[in-house]
Amino acid sequence: xxxxxxxIRRNAILFAVLGLFALVIVYDWKSRxxxxxTEKFSRxxxxxxxxxxxxxxxxxxxxxxxxxxxxxxxxAEVQAGISPRNHTxxxxxxxxxxxxxxxxxxxxxPGWLHTFDxxxxxxxxxxxxxxxxxxxxxxxxxxWCEMIFLERWFRExxxxxxxxxxxxxxxxxxxxxxxxxxxxDEANPFLPITVDNIVEGQQFVFKEFGVRPSTIWxxxxxxxxxxxxxxxxxxxxxxxxxxRIHHGIKNKLQSLRAIPFTWKQFFDITKNSDMLTQxxxxxxYDVLNSCGPNSGVCCQFDFRRITxxxxxxxxxxxxxxxxxxxxxxxxxxxxxxxxxxYQSNVLMMMLGDDFRYDGIREWHQQHDNYVKLFDHINAxxxxxxRFGTFSDYFTxxxxxxxxxxxxxxxxxxxxxxxxxxxxDDWTGYFTTxxxxxxxxxMLHALVRAADLLSSQATxxxxxxxxxxxxxMLTVARRNLSLFQHHDAITGTSKISVMRNYGELLHxxxxxxxxxxxASFKAISESTFELYEVPVAYNASxxxxxxxxxxxxxxxxxxxxxxxxxxLETVAVRVNSPNVKVVDAEGNPVRAQLNPFxxxxxGVSKDSYLLVFLIQLPRLSAVQVQLVYEELPxxxxxSQIEFPDVQNVSFYVEREFPRKFKSKGVKRNAIALKxxxxxTTHNEKTGLLESIKTSAVESTRLxxxxxxxxxxxxxxxxxxxxxxxxxxxxxxxxxxxxxxxLQQSIHVLSKFYAVHYVARDTDDxxxxxxxxxxxxxxxxxxxSEAIARFAIDSKTFSLFTDNVGLHMIxxxxxxxxxxxxxxxxxxxxxxxxDDKKRITVVSNVEHGCSGQKNGFEIxxxxxxxxxxxxxxxxxxxxxxxxxxxxxxxxxxxxxxxSQLPEHYAYNTINAHNALQxxxxxxxxxxxxxxxxxxxxxATNAPSFPCDIQxxxxxxxxxxxxxxxxxxxxxxxxxxxxxxxxSACSKQDxxxxxxxxxxxxxxxxxxxxxxxxxVVEENxxxxxxxEFSVDSMDFASYRLKH
Length: 1040
Hints:
Blueprint: H1 2-16, H2 20-34, E1 69-70, H3 71-80, E2 98-107, H4 116-133, E3 142-144, H5 147-154, H6 159-171, E4 174-176, H7 191-209, E5 216-218, H8 227-233, E6 239-242, H9 247-255, E7 261-264, E8 275-279, H10 295-299, H11 324-339, E9 346-354, H12 360-380, E10 383-387, H13 390-403, E11 409-412, H14 434-457, H15 463-482, H16 495-524, E12 529-530, E13 545-546, E14 554-560, E15 566-574, E16 579-582, E17 588-589, E18 591-598, E19 602-616, E20 620-628, E21 635-637, E22 639-643, E23 661-665, E24 671-673, E25 677-681, E26 688-693, E27 699-708, E28 725-727, E29 733-738, E30 742-748, E31 752-759, E32 768-775, E33 783-791, E34 797-801, E35 807-810, E36 822-825, E37 828-832, E38 836-842, E39 846-851, E40 854-862, E41 885-894, E42 903-904, H17 908-918, E43 922-926, E44 948-954, E45 964-970, H18 988-998, E46 1003-1007, E47 1019-1020, E48 1032-1039
Parallel strand pairs: 1-11, 2-9, 2-10, 3-4, 5-6, 6-8, 7-11, 13-15, 18-21, 22-23
Antiparallel strand pairs: 7-8, 12-43, 14-20, 14-43, 15-19, 16-17, 16-20, 18-19, 22-29, 24-25, 25-26, 26-27, 27-28, 27-33, 29-30, 30-31, 31-32, 32-41, 33-40, 34-35, 34-37, 35-42, 36-39, 37-38, 38-41, 39-40, 44-45, 45-48, 46-47, 46-48
């Protein structure tokens, strides 16, 4: 970057004649810019006059926007009969004419009963027929979602046909809805992955077709998060069509003419994040549930049924001169009945179903018969009907509202749980098949790290290598996005399809690991391999056994993908206690040897877990070496404590390596106690009973491992009885491990294992309790394993996260069935009374529920019956369980704030604990004696601790393969917690500039979330001020 500095120096000389004042300005500006490369960060512009950093927390809960309805209140009313309100029935505007848009569509699942590859054969047929039929029939319209199918088909087309598709989109005959790679589930995903799913699809759409979608089409997910539409608003979309909301809530809103509504965010009183939302009128998105209230009549207007299927009563018939009058009257009658539910005279009717239009005959059947109906109806004058798109519908609706001064109803909240028209509660899928859910989160961490590390390596890659790296990242990211599909991450596909998803996730992990290794190779000219990589699609990543050798050293490179400097725990498996950890300068690093646990089996008798603490700069790697040395002073062998009585009724490996010293203790002495945290445990089970920290007095948190038995649910549904729950009967093998760096308690039972770990440090993480669970219920039938926690407060509130965006309040109704009290927990929950908050964060999505005296988290489910939601009995039953480790962190804090009525934020410690859990340091290993020390280590400043770096990923739009998109996010923060002062602000502009200089970025442009709308033109890096508001994103395109 020589040019900017020469320019500054040249101008400084010229400005000198203007006087001392101008010189001071130039000097100050230059020193701030050049200072990015120095240690000049101990005092930021947020420091107080005495140099002490100001506390990070400045977020205040704003007033919730005024709404007519909140979904939590509606759920309590329609499901539990709590506090029924006298709602206003909104009046219908009387007009002379109905305007109806019949919208041809097909719903296509990238995996469910068949794999994505198999379904691609069907979607290729649909799209080929579309391209043959629609250009010849100018009245026809078509909606397409699921860009994953469109991309696979489109890339194989000759250029002439590609241009024909582009023309259809340009003329409005073909509308691409949502633009996301897949139609995501909205209960289980984690915010950064959802952003990637949107960005990946919308960049493809813009690159190939030059358009940006204007409407969300989400007809099939089993409930809806209000966070997902918020993310879409950040790409410019402010209108949506959804379907599967609680049937009672849908009926309630329809009875009041409260659909469509403006969906508002709790934290935004402006209209910036509003989403005008239409809900499909009846139980499904097929023709039978679209034209009006009488499905028997509507069935007659699904003209594919002339040849392929039948209706229960009178069937579909070809429209002729002899029946067009009668059939038109029947259809108009349904339109008129349906219109009574709405204030406006503008209607939409869906014309399609799953995998429709796969044969050219259906295109003719639907088009030709409807055109005859349209001509007859339109000639009468009281109804105007034609084929249309979502854009047609919303444009006409907005015009109607403006002309008649109709303000759509305002609504806030999410739509969980979802209950269908049969009264079934679709809440089991929050937990179903947790092994694959964990595999997805592990892949996300790898893809994100690969994006970040390859961005640092980009200046060192040859052009060909950079293209290959980008291609591997694209494949990995698209496989990850595919798994966000509402029958993938939910675990609700056939066993063979879930296996295929697992293989795709595994292959993406291998590709991500290859990118990470290639990036280190380019940067440091040394060969390192990722230490923990799963060996198969149905296996978790395991720690490789490092065999220490007197003749050579083993080099480890530890990469911190977080934008904050951290003191981190690193753990590797070694075959000998004779090991010393040394840093890059040869100084010994304190280490601790623990027993190595093999979940499902017990203690390893011939290996050790080597644990050491290391300071990791932000977005950087630090290198250490493992040296064979006889019992070095810097490595301490932990002490094992056994209760004097062990009630073990099953086989478990209990032989420890001989180097460990052990002693017996009373069973009531099972406990952890470090400088900052103390726990007590049940003397029979070894499970947690209470926590005390240096900031918070002893707090009851009694854990029980339990199971719902004789459940009648399936992959989708919970149909358990609250009276059928019982504790696991087998008491476990319990022991405590104590050392200078951390302490742990291990509970090994026949069907589960629980490991509690407390780090003995003086930072805020020293007040956190880390919990790892392993559940194996493969020998059970129709059962659901849970961890239940009882607290000492009788008046508390439960909140769960909303795909990681913020927390949302949940109610518990003891008189309702279990399934009706379950909510999604994508990453965290907390319970809070007027003094204390207990937060639990997890690296796997779960279902959870409140209880009278606490809460429970579901860990795994096994079902040998079908729940009647389409999967059937063949290759579909929930019996393909793969046990998996799941990590939690428990944070106990004092709080003083009064929470808003419906939502809340995590504390800064909970945010950071979740980031640490999701994005563990990545360890790389090399046996090369001459492995060069990493050049990534940096003393540059951390980002502000409330800033999350979602990604720095390649831009797929444009010709520059080195161009990147950086996305920052600043979550809302609960400011009244007792430990917030431990985290202080850094200057965002200085810290981001420093990081981008390391990436050798020269020019930056601010954009919207997907990088497609440049809000500010490209500027030299040092002229860009970086900022992110609370609960908002900031995206920037980066050029070298």
